[in-house]
Amino acid sequence: MRLRSSAFLWLCALRYVSALEESEAGVVDWHKELVGVPLTDSTKALPAFIRSDPSSPAKKTGMAVATKSNVLAVLNPGSTGNVVWRRQFDQSEGRILQYKTHRDALVSISGPGGSRVRLFEAFTGSLLWEHQLHSPSLGRLLEPANLGVDVTFWHELSDIDAYVLTNGNSVSRLEGKSGNTVWNWSTDNISTLLSRVVLSSTSIHAIGLTKTESYTLTITTLDRQTGRLVSQTQIPSQITRGMRDVFVLNTRDTNAPAVVWFEKHTGTLHSVVLDSQVLSPEIAATKIRFVKVHDVQLDKQGLFVAETNDELPYVFGIYSTGLKQEWDFDDSAISKSETPSLFSGSLDREGNPYIARVFWSLSTGMAHIHTYAAHGSEGKGISTGATFPYDTVEHGVILHCAIDAFMPHGYSIQHRMLLTTSTGAVQLWQLHDLQWTRDEALTDIKVAALVDLPEHKIAEEIASSEHRGFLERLIFHIVATQNLPQYIAQFSKRFATGSYTLTPSSSSSLERDPFGFRKVLVVATGYGTLLGVDTAQGTVVWRKIIGVSSTGPADVFPFKMFVTKSALEGPDPEVVLVAEKKLRGRKTKTSVVFHFRALTGRWVSGSASGIEVSETEVAEAFVLPGQSNVVGIVSADGKAHVYPNSRPSIDGASQLYFTRAIGSELRGFTLDSRLSNPAVETWKKAFTTPATFPDTAASRVEVIHRPVSPVASYGKVLGDRTTLYKYLNPNVAAVLAPDCAVRVVDLVSGSIVFDSGALPAPCVAPKVAFVENWLVYAHEVGGNSTDKGTKIVSVELYEGAGKDDKTNSVESSSFSEKSIKVHAIQQSFLFPYPIVALGTTSTKFGISSKGLLCGLRLFYSHRSATDA
Q1: What's the predicted TM-score (pTM) here?
Q2: Of the residues 31, 404, 785, 836, which has the fewest C-beta atoms closer than 10 A?
Q3: 3-state secondary structure labels for all residues of 301-361
Q4: Distance from C-alpha of 772 to C-alpha of 796, rounded to nearest angstrom
């Protein structure tokens, strides 16, 4: 009878059991495909619109970008700006130096001195071939890195080979179909640095500079078929800024190769056409004196821009007879209310050139674009102007503008722009309308915090009841009792069926869902920005600029971030960011804090410039024990500061301890409870790099703290009814040393609780996860080892010397002998794939068993693995 009852209850329970369907397994809620912030410091790798071969039946358009994350990618200019394809270049190979499109192909040069050349299909990313021209160790380390690197193609199908300049002294012809070397020529003249190559019908010309009292323009001519040296000519010049003032173009009338250079001290433009044995330099026939020239990537069309002292831009073209002024933007004279102009060029599908000038006007509060078309107005040229509402408050300064333009008729220019901003954002504008924004600064997150969202009803009640009196509140609660039957019905349904009404992820308001999965991810990036990301969809809901950034790093360096007010304390959670700030004219950094609301980014106190708490750098930052809304900051001079600026005592503690990792040393410090005296160093441990390790090994220490989470079980009961008590000393952390050993160190006393031992040289720092008493680390095993792959070591730390040996590690002093009485249980496993990150699962009350999360670098997956 009892068996029948049990079976009946089990069958009834099946009604309320839910499981994950096979179709839902492995489904990703959202995935943000990032490529990195585009490079804007080199004309050889600027973002650009690219088009398919004009002879191709499929008319395709994309946006090619080479980024600071060493990624080469093509974006879709459609409604979302999604990634068509992207290729991550290994960091050990070196950065991307140049890319160039030719018909339906895209060639890239990367590595020291341009050691590696790759050819891709431009709109699929398929690698056609790859060729190493020289060993990376033989690459010349030039500044800028892309100096001495160039690639060009012949415009006719009779020759599809690539002509590549590398190392500033070597020219190679590579087969277009295979990448094999047809011929190679190099020079041993170390005083000459070649930087550009251009083709003529029978020759290839390499242009560079020879350093004398000033720069001498050097033109080396080689035979295209054999690579034989034909001639070498040196033209005296007064070039002072190197190859920035030298352009290699084709003449607009005869398509012959030509060189144009700018001599700053005289403000004059010079040119020479490379179409004869005797080269005759010419000076531009104009009385205008220039101060700056701009490459607009219209080499084949023979156009560039020169600016005068009042920044009035002129468009010049090169002809077989010399330089000729094509246009001047006289309708856009510069005033003090306008920012310096950006110039870029593009071609339409018919091959007609366009030049755009973009600037920001303080008087109008908008960005302006003036577009010039040389073929407009029946060949006389035409220029049109427009404005667009670019938001400098959210996105900072425009660093680069790539343009895509066409003329629907002879007197109108339509355009779209791809903007790269100082905050790391990439935007597409169609005329004056913003199409989409990609926040590529998310590829450089320095610190981050997950913030719980408030419940919608609670937030409304708090907001509406702040100014109510007692009688009003009493009436409100009496009226609210009419919803009691509905609440009881909904609660009964949830209890019986487990069915919840989920808040739609598309909701514009930020509010908690029934399970608390939806949160706001607050991040501080290396581009001086704060971003709030809705974890329901991955969308950026707010942006704030806290640091100035142009082509270099921002002047604000995030250190740590703390949630000082949670959703349980009110409808507007608050976050404090501790950072370092570099001030102009000062060599040292200051310590600043930024206090803002997590859901909107609005400042609670202070402003975008932050609140200065110390005139020196940050040494450590922490939340004061017992006061979750007070942040303590220890500056480099050892002085302690608090924010908000009050002087509270540390509840329940006579002293406060913290550590600093300085180079290969780990140092411990103490502060008194009133934070009135400077920090005192109490211990120091040096972790030296073994002599067997290479010189390139990183000599630094990394401290990995355990996450603060509830502990439901303090021990493990074994089969013989003995107990192993978890080692839960709150003062310990995992420490990674230069010898790749993983150690557990008591940060108060400096005692080493556990030591894994050094890994064989050379080694890569292991990936580590540490929670409660469970330490997991993973490292690659290779070389002469019999087992190759990734070794995962699981370590469980328990109190005392064995079973039933309880030392009460949670409450014991770190200076007592029993605090370091620990025994470890270790297990190791061999994994076939590289692991890039480790993590552990967590639950609200810590009741469920912990699970290990492994971030893998997989380039394919077996069906058997996905079905398992």
Answers
A1: 0.84
A2: 31
A3: CCEEEEEECCCCEEEEEEECCEEEEEEECHHHCCCCCECCCEEEEEECCCCCEEEEEEEEE
A4: 9
